[in-house]
Amino acid sequence: MKNIAILFNPGAARGRAEAKKDSFQAALQARGLVWDFFESESEVHLGQLTRELAEEYKVIVCVGGDTTVHLVVNELMKLPRRPILGIVGLGSSNDIARHLGVRSAERLARIFRSGYPREVDVGCVVVGGEVKRYFLGQLSLGLGALVNQFVDDWSRKYPFLARAIPLVGFWGIVAAYRQKKVPFPLQIKGPTLFFSGESVLAVVSNTKYWASGCLVNPIGRIDDGWLEVSIFHGVDLARLARLYWLTRGGKHYRSKRVSYASGDFWRIISPAPLRVQVDGELLFGASSEEKVKELEIRVLRRALSVWVFGD
Length: 311
Description:
The protein is of the alpha+beta class. The chain folds into two domains: 2-114, 3-Layer(aba) Sandwich (Rossmann fold), CATH 3.40.50; 127-302, Sandwich (Tumour Suppressor Smad4). Helices cover 29% and strands 34% of the residues. It contains eight helices and 15 strands. Strands 5, 6, 7, 8, 9, 10, 11, 12, 13, 14 and 15 form an eleven-stranded antiparallel beta sheet that branches. Strands 2-1-3-4 form a four-stranded parallel beta sheet. α1 (21-30) runs parallel beside α5 and α6 crosses α7. It is globular.
């Protein structure tokens, strides 16, 4: 079996990763790393490459953003034999890579010398007894999904806005409040928390970071068998701004307007169809034919081996 396959997504960071391809390979070569290089052409091709490379290589290094990682993880979780996964963040957010400590070619080369593979947990989204998605990072509801959809829609219409994502995201938050899409009624049940009320945002986390570096899960570990939930209550826009700045430093959980708890199982219910984002992928959105009002989130303990550099 071959050793290392680099699976590079040039479409990451809304296509900006393409410009980093040559410098990325040069940095690895300068540090004596030997690999085979593969480049995806589409999301479908990325999945096909993942399945093919998993049969031939001991290690697949996924180079892209959180959505790239998400797509690769979902392919690997379907396989009876899973190679060790490496991750390098070259996307727009890179929250999974930020947690794992690998956000550059230089750090990747170091990880193969002084890092180690670790068996990590994987979350899964279950609807009606059927696993819909696996995730390594986070699942979010409410603003997490609404803002992502808003940014995607506007970036497709006006590609130049791809370089102003934070500003577009802020517009998306304002639009969600004006259109009264938030707050929304939500019920979340788990082994350590029962919440029933209005919420603007809920995040179920396997890793620490969310939304480009917000420390939404300060106690989170990727191999502890738990998923943490952060529920932001039905606050107005001004209070949400305050909570956002607290979240940047991982201090939001001290607020009375946030519920924060750990569990290995969460049931989520809403009288209205849920809009869900899982590591950058939108599920059950406004255009989806599948309308989901209840789902379960479970943790699969130590289901995947991943190269990490610290935790």
